Amino acid sequence: MRVLAAMSGGVDSAVAAARAVDAGHDVTGVHLALSAKPGTLRTGSRGCCTVEDAHDARRAADILGIPFYVWDFAERFTEEVIEDFVAEYAAGRTPNPCLKCNERIKFEALLDKAIALGFDAVCTGHYARLADGTLRRAKDAGKDQSYVLASLTPEQLRHAMFPVGDTTKDDIRAEAAARDLAVADKPDSYDICFIPDGDTRAFLESRIGSRPGQLVDAESGAVLGVHTGVHGFTVGQRHGLGIDRPAPDGRPRYVLSLEPVDGTVRVGPADRLSVREIVADRAVWPHNRPLDGVVECVAQVRAHGGTSPATAEFRDGTLTVRPQAQLRGVAPGQAVVLYRPDADGDVVLGSATIRATSA
After folding, report:
1. Is residue 48 annotated as part of the catalytic site, yes or no?
2. Region (Interaction with tRNA) spans which residues (predicted)?
């Protein structure tokens, strides 16, 4: 097959490309330039997509002996990922930009261009397993990225390859070293790639501005303070609330809900964060099999953690999930991903965007 290997400049995508070459495919490497100012997107191990990363990707491609190109997707990334991120926070929701990037950039914009140029598949360094069109969790549970891939369609998965999903991260690094890839010991990037200093509140403030509102105790209705915008908060947040006095019971307070219309941020004790029902829409079924009736599954509401055995039902375009264990800090705008555990690994059943929760 003709395979386009998306090479970020990290160790995972370099080894994924190498494995595609070993498998006998005709491989071409490509690095996605996602920022008009690439020098601003990395601080140490934070962020990605810099000139440094492009050079690391090129050096890996040279060692593998494959053609290499840099494609400029900065404008599309800004529109589809960054602007969506800002708009979602302004509306009082909590988006997942990595999920959106996979969906709109790597497996829509990139894949569409690859297919148009005659490639059969796009290869990435994501930690997930894909066999016979079935998307599963990775072998390395600590690195599993199936959650952020669960919004891919059957057609997109048909043209996807995840060569490192059956290997632990330590073994991937060892393999990279054995192949003389300079990125073998390169630190993993983390946090949001377009906010390299990790200060999400300041980033949003610079784009949304100040929208003052009140911090209100959900139990007493008392006004506890003021803030400069609901975009500075997310459900489940404890620190940085700006409350200058303790609660009457002495317990810490958490963000319970955001009301962007009037700017109210309601806070309360941790036990009021627990949810027993999740309502979601915009469902995607990676294997083209929507739920039929009430289904036993495992629900996950964050990229790492936030899992519980659950029942789920899809009816009239709405997915209703009832976790058996109490999940806390579940925010509208996040994705809920459903899995079916089996002997060979957890199979992704589907995903949807959380619209509301109830206790």
Report:
1. no
2. 143-145
